[in-house]
Write a structure and sequence with these properties.
By secondary structure, this protein is of the alpha+beta class. It has one domain. The chain is about 40% helix and about 25% strand. The protein contains one helix and eight strands. Strands 2, 3, 4, 5 and 6 form a five-stranded antiparallel sheet that branches.
């Protein structure tokens, strides 16, 4: 008669199963946490770009009012804005007749994160001077000025 001790096999199988299940659970948790972090980073970038866009839109509207009151050619506003949002640079572009669902036909700013995941459109209302479409700047210090053609434009300022 052969005497078998099956407990050793049972202990080995139990350890292998425990390690396997633990590994699967940890991998699932890390994957889920990574997805959540990406979502929160994107949401943070979206909110930050929207806030920056609203500030720039207000500054553009101020330039428009100042130009209406005086000599438009000498109106120039330089404003400091964050260089990055959610650890990524961004670009601001002036656009006429934005083609988004909410801003159809309205002038706007398009803010784009450099990682390409987030685009934000902010409406701009000017009474006196039109925008210079395609005028753009990277995040940071931005100059808002009136061109020789009496249009409002933006450009980046290196400091």
């Amino acid at each position: 008669m052969i005497d078998r001790d099956e407990r050793a096999m049972s202990i080995t199988v139990t350890h292998v199963l425990t390690i396997g299940i633990t590994t699967i659970l940890i991998a699932t948790l890390l994957t889920s946490a990574g997805g959540l972090l990406d979502t929160e980073t994107e949401r943070s970038a979206d909110r930050s770009l929207e806030t920056i866009g609203e500030r720039i839109a207000g500054e553009i509207e101020s330039v428009d009012r100042i130009a209406a009151d005086g000599d438009a050619e000498h109106v120039n506003v330089t404003a400091e804005h964050p260089k990055t949002v959610a650890n990524a640079g961004y670009r601001v572009e002036l656009r006429e007749n934005c083609d988004t669902a909410l801003l159809d036909g309205t002038d706007c700013l398009k803010l784009t994160a450099s990682n390409g995941d987030v685009d934000v459109y902010v409406p701009v209302v000017t009474e006196e001077l039109p925008l210079e479409p395609g005028s753009s700047a990277h995040g940071g210090t931005i100059e808002i000025y009136v061109t020789d053609a009496d249009r409002i434009a933006i450009r980046g300022v290196n400091r």
